[in-house]
Design goal:
The protein is mainly β and 259 residues long. Helix content is 6%, strand content 71%. The longest helix is centred in the N-terminal third of the chain and has 9 residues. The relative contact order is 0.22.
């Protein structure tokens, strides 16, 4: 399999914003931008209908696979905060190309298809800090997560072949809770969890990080995240059937510049 992956670490905005804003005067706006690297693992079931035949395949790429296939990172997130309120915006792109093995039809005939997969995402959220008890900071947040998939493939089953292009998009509304523990003026440990839906059947995220403010304008963080989503359009007998049931998880290193 020849795979090329571009995956941004834009998921760190909420956590790094917490670290950057904690010590800021309550009547001043605080702004920041963040990016970083993420060691991605993917476990997914993907399905679509090709020329009237349902095709479903499993995707299982661990961190070592990603490194072997030369993962690159990109993407950007930003935030603005004042008092107990924080607003964040992130954008991301994930692109895969390669040969994938699967099965087709009720007889589970072996098949191979050349796949180009591109996922574009945007995430907008608002957070409200509702409690500060000692070194513990609690916030609630909510937002919208937009995802667009573009799939182009050619299926080969024995001597036969067929191709198809798929374009699907959905938007999930989600709500969550975050907690930050202020170790000292430079170090913070933060976690968050959210659940959503509306466009997908269900999506949820768990994220934890330790952030270090090593300069008045700079913060770095080591973090881990687990994201799960299931999206299905129609059923396998429909010509426009599309299934994406995935778990994406890993660890990363982020950097934030705040002012």
């Amino acid at each position: 399999m020849n795979l090329r992956i571009v995956k941004p670490a834009s998921i760190i905005a909420l956590l790094l914003a917490s670290a950057a804003v904690t010590a800021a005067p309550q009547d001043e706006w605080k702004f920041g931008v963040a990016t970083g690297l993420f060691g991605l693992n993917i476990e997914a079931d993907a399905g679509f209908n090709a020329a009237g035949v349902p095709v479903e395949t499993e995707v299982d790429l661990d961190f070592k696979d990603i490194l072997d296939f030369k993962e690159t990172a990109g993407g950007l997130s930003g935030f603005a905060a004042k008092g107990p309120w924080r607003f964040s915006l992130a954008a991301s792109v994930l692109e895969l190309t390669g040969d994938v093995d699967g099965v087709v039809g009720p007889s589970n005939l072996p098949a191979t298809f050349d796949l180009t997969f591109k996922s574009t995402g945007a995430n907008m959220a608002a957070s409200y800090r509702f409690a500060v008890k000692g070194k513990n900071v609690w916030s609630v947040y909510g937002g919208a997560r937009y995802t667009k998939h573009e799939v182009d493939f050619e299926l080969e089953v024995g001597p036969s072949s067929a191709g198809k292009e798929i374009e699907e998009s959905w938007t999930d509304i989600y709500v969550g809770l975050s907690h930050a523990y202020i170790v000292n003026s430079a170090v913070i440990v933060a976690s968050k969890a959210d659940v959503g839906g509306g466009g997908s059947d269900l999506s949820w995220t768990v994220n934890s990080a330790i952030a270090w403010k090593f300069h008045k304008n700079w913060t770095t963080a080591f973090y881990g995240q687990y994201y799960s989503v299931k999206f299905e359009n129609g059923d396998e007998n429909d010509s426009d059937w599309y299934l994406f049931d995935a778990n994406e998880f890993g660890v990363g290193l982020g950097i934030t510049f705040a002012w």
